[in-house]
Structure formats: structure tokens, C-alpha cells
Design a protein that fits this description.
CATH superfamily of the largest domain: UbiA prenyltransferase
Helix content: 55-70%
Order of helices and strands: HHHHHHHHHHHHHHHHH
Number of domains: 2
CATH class of the largest domain: Mainly Alpha
Structural class: mainly alpha
Distance between the termini: 78 Å
CATH architecture of the largest domain: Orthogonal Bundle
Radius of gyration: 26 Å
């Protein structure tokens, strides 16, 4: 197969007309990654399906890489034919025998996302200069890809094997069957929506779970009374602003790595929907809001806010050098307890540190589970995580983290003299953590991404359950 053929098949594999602009090709590539995600398949339960999806994913990666390199090469020589402005032009057309098709051949009509093939395990790009406009011709219908699922080696699956593969797909699988027709229309992502995604406001669970420990501390520090509405407002808005700043910092640090990880490839910076200058501007705004809110607190709270800010800024770097970076994040999370308690009382107590330890262990637990979703990608690109560090022992270690959380919460309840409402909530939370440990252990060989996200979401509700128990279980309420 010639290099021109390989490049054409790279486009058709993504369901795009040859010559489509780089921005559109990248958008479709991200959509295909979400569809053909091997992490969504239980390898132990269905090895053939997992292997097929994994091969398809590799082929998509190779096709995208070939297209990117082609466009970079085209820009380097100033080729108008390959520029994004004329991206709708076809590059070249190849008959089944490899010859250029005549200019009057009919153009390919409906692209077929999820169909096509790459001829070879590795797709090479053109070594020569990009093809001139005079050599451009549409792709004939004969060169269109089959809708049959194919492997990256370029071998077509027999029809009976394809039918077996489709029958094996569970109803709720994120892996979809090949189909004919064009990609569904989607509105262009606006800058405002990119900012929304950068700050993870489209995923409120992550914002709430940071707010919970601060509210634990504020209500417990108030004894039988209520924290002032000013303190509660600062905690709520401050948590949102601080977590937003943390997300922006994380994406600025990890832009290069995020583009190589399945779960994070669609983040605005990694996907190229937002410039670094815009992200920095958003970060500055979030930091200014956080600082203005912190200045409304007492002296010790301000000092704790400064320390927390330093840890938050350094956390993304920890993933490069520290074997358990989730511990750094857990310490940053723990500052929510210290700040919330000091904001109410102006001092810290022994109970504060018990609650801080419970929060650190709780965060280590759910964030280690979250890191399990990225194990393969993190290992490949050289990032560190607690999931990689603990390896096969990860489910048991997560169970120990949650057990430690329950133990320190028990001491908090005893020190604060909390009543039965708190103890009921703690029993229910402990049962929830025990069930999460069992779920991880049962699917230890290859947990699916659904398990990871479910456990994270469950911990939001468990945290809120404990908050309710703390509020209702305080003496003299």
C-alpha cells in the first residue's frame, strides 16, 4: 500500500472525507476515542470483544497521528492544498489497484464513522512534499471502506464473526456498532462552554466533595449553634473558586499528558478548544476571588489559605516525581477542614486534627479509585499514581483508607459528644465503604470505568450523609 493510500485510509477510518481540516479531524478523533474505549469492556468477561475494541482504538490513534503529521508537514512547506482553509479538498484518490482515479469520478458521499481500515500496524505519513492541487481528485466509491468492524492490521473480519461481536455487546456498552451515514451535527464549542469545562462546572460532584469537609468542620466547630451565614457563604463560594483554580492549574500543568489519556483527552486545553493565555486568565480570576474571600476571614484562616494554595499549585507536579501524588491532593483537601474550623473558632483543636486525618484518608481512598481509571495511560506516558504504586493491592489499600476514615470519624463523634443521628450516619457510611471495597475486589483483574465513577459519586452522597448526621447529632440543637 502506498503512503497516499495509507493517508486516505486514515481519513476514512475516522469517517471523514480525505483532506478534512485538522481541527475537524481532531474533533471526530476525540468522539471516536469515547466510542471505542477498551476500558469500558470487562476483559475477563468478554476477552474477544475487549481485544477487538483495543485494536480498533490503536488503529484510530494511528490514523489521527498520520493526519496530524501530514498537516504539520504541509504547513512546513506552505502547501495550500493541505491548509485548514482548504481542508475540504481531497488529497488524492486511489483505485483498488493503487492508480490515481480520473478527475470525473464521483465523490464519496456518506462518511462512515466507526468503519474503514488502516493498512498496516503503523501508519506512515508522506515523506515527500504534500500533493499539489492539480493532483487532487475525489475518492471513488470503490475505495470507500466497508462498514464491517476491522482490525488495525487491515484484516477484515468475517461476517459471521462480526455478527458474533455485535451480539456480544451488552446493551449499555459505550462501544457502538459500525453504521452508515454522516456524523451527527454538533454545535461549535463556544469559549464560554470551554471555560465551563475547564473549571469542571459540568461535573458538580467534584466541586461538592471538596465543600463537604469544610462544612463538616464549620458545623462541628459551632458546637450546638449554627455557623454564621457569612462563614457558610465564604466556605461555599470559596470551595467553588478554589477547586476551579485547582482544575485550571492542573490542566495547564498537564496539557501535554491530558491529550494522551482517554479520560482527559476532551478537556479544553488538551483538545485545543482553549488557548493557554485564556486558561491563565481564568486562573487569575479564580485566584483573585479566592483571595478576596480569604481576606474576610481571621488571621489564622488566612495563613492556612496561603498554605493550601501552595499545595494546590504543586499537586500537578507531584504526579511526575512522587509515587503517591494522591497523598498531596489529600493534604490539600484536608486544608478545607483546618480553614473551616479556624474560620469559626479562630483556633484549632485536637478534634480538628482527628477530622483532618479522617478527611485525608477519605480523600486518599476515593481519589485512588479515581486514579485506577487511568492506570494504563499513566503507565504508558510515565505519570505516577497511587493506583500504580499499590498495583494489585489497590482494592485492599483503598479498603484500609476507608476503614481509617471510619475509625477517626468515630473518635470525632466521641470527642464532640454527638448523638445517635451521627452514629447512624457513620454506620451507613461504613457499610457503603465496605461495599465499595467488595466491588473493587470482585473486579480486581479489570474494573470498568463505570465502577470508578460510581464509587466517586457514592462518596459524595456518603459525605453528605455524614454531614447530616453531624448537624442533627450535635448536642443542644
Amino acid at each position: 500500500m502506498t503512503q497516499n493510500e495509507q493517508l486516505i485510509h486514515s481519513y476514512t477510518l475516522l469517517g471523514l472525507p480525505p483532506g478534512t481540516g485538522l481541527e475537524e479531524a481532531h474533533r471526530v478523533y476525540l468522539e471516536q476515542l469515547d466510542i471505542w474505549n477498551p476500558n469500558a469492556i470487562d476483559e475477563e468477561a468478554n476477552p474477544p470483544l475487549y481485544q477487538q475494541v483495543k485494536l480498533r482504538r490503536q488503529a484510530i490513534d494511528e490514523a489521527h497521528r498520520a493526519i496530524v503529521e501530514y498537516h504539520e508537514q504541509s504547513e512546513g512547506v506552505g502547501s495550500a492544498a493541505a491548509s485548514e482553509a482548504e481542508g475540504e479538498s481531497a488529497i488524492a484518490a486511489v483505485e483498488p489497484n493503487g492508480a490515481l482515479s480520473p478527475p470525473d469520478e464521483p465523490a464519496m458521499n456518506d462518511a462512515q464513522p466507526g468503519a474503514g481500515w488502516v493498512g498496516g500496524a503503523t501508519t506512515e505519513v508522506l515523506d515527500s512534499a504534500p500533493i499539489s492541487p492539480e493532483a487532487v481528485a475525489p475518492v471513488p466509491a470503490a475505495a470507500q471502506p466497508s462498514s464491517t468492524f476491522v482490525q488495525s492490521e487491515g484484516k477484515m473480519l468475517p461476517e459471521d464473526a462480526q455478527q458474533g461481536l455485535e451480539d456480544a455487546m451488552p446493551a449499555n456498552s459505550r462501544v457502538v456498532r459500525s453504521y452508515g451515514g454522516a456524523l451527527p451535527d454538533s454545535d461549535e464549542v463556544t469559549q464560554s462552554s470551554a471555560v465551563f469545562q475547564l473549571l469542571r462546572w459540568d461535573k458538580p460532584a467534584g466541586r461538592i466533595i471538596l465543600m463537604i469537609p469544610a462544612l463538616w468542620a464549620a458545623f462541628l466547630a459551632s458546637g450546638g449553634g449554627m455557623p454564621s451565614w457569612q462563614i457558610l457563604l465564604i466556605i461555599i463560594v470559596g470551595s467553588i473558586a478554589t477547586s476551579a483554580a485547582g482544575c485550571a492549574v492542573n490542566d495547564l500543568w498537564d496539557q501535554e499528558f491530558d491529550s494522551q489519556v482517554a479520560r482527559t483527552q476532551n478537556r479544553p486545553l488538551a483538545a485545543g478548544r482553549m488557548s493557554r493565555k485564556s486558561a491563565i486568565a481564568v486562573l487569575v480570576v479564580c485566584c483573585l476571588i479566592s483571595i478576596l474571600l480569604a481576606l474576610q476571614l481571621n488571621g489564622i484562616s488566612i495563613q492556612l489559605c496561603v498554605a493550601a494554595g501552595i499545595v494546590i499549585l504543586l499537586y500537578p507536579g507531584a504526579k511526575r516525581v512522587f509515587p503517591v501524588p494522591q497523598l498531596v491532593l489529600a493534604i490539600a483537601w484536608g486544608f478545607a477542614v483546618l480553614i473551616g474550623w479556624a474560620a469559626v473558632t479562630g483556633a484549632l483543636s485536637f478534634t480538628t486534627f482527628l477530622l483532618w486525618l479522617a478527611t485525608v484518608l477519605w480523600t486518599l481512598g476515593f481519589d485512588t479509585v479515581y486514579a485506577m481509571a487511568d492506570q494504563e495511560d499513566d503507565r504508558r506516558i510515565g505519570l505516577k499514581s497511587s493506583a500504580l504504586f499499590f498495583a494489585d493491592k489497590t482494592p485492599d489499600v483503598v479498603g484500609l483508607f476507608f476503614a481509617g476514615t471510619a475509625i477517626f470519624m468515630l473518635f470525632v463523634g466521641l470527642n464532640q459528644g454527638l448523638s445517635w443521628q451521627f452514629w447512624l450516619s457513620l454506620v451507613l457510611a461504613t457499610l457503603g465503604w465496605l461495599q465499595q471495597h467488595r466491588s473493587l475486589s470482585k473486579s480486581q483483574l479489570r474494573p470498568t470505568t463505570r465502577i470508578y465513577s460510581d464509587i466517586f459519586t457514592q462518596n459524595v452522597w456518603l459525605g453528605l450523609l455524614l454531614l447530616a448526621g453531624m448537624i442533627l447529632g450535635r448536642p443542644f440543637v
